[in-house]
Design goal:
mainly alpha; elongated
Length: 102
Amino acid sequence: MIQQPLEWGLGLAAVLLAIGMVGVLVRRNVIFILMSLEIMLNAAGLAAIVAGARWAQADGQILFILILALAAAEVSVGLGLILLLHRRFGTLDADRFSEMRG
């Protein structure tokens, strides 16, 4: 089996993390923000798998399963909040939610 260098996998994870970070900071739509968070979680999972493969341990794959479970929980809670915010404000623009301040 041909093994890819560790730097390639970690470089791809860093690029995905940067794309997700830019999406969180630049976008104003809540759905796009949640999608960017998913990209960042996938980048962390990829880094765990690459590191686990480097040392021939299954720890990276186990950590990735935990990250997937966390992502599923984040999606379910996030979509519930999106539905609630859309009902209350009629939009998904994050700037409009400043009315929620007490």
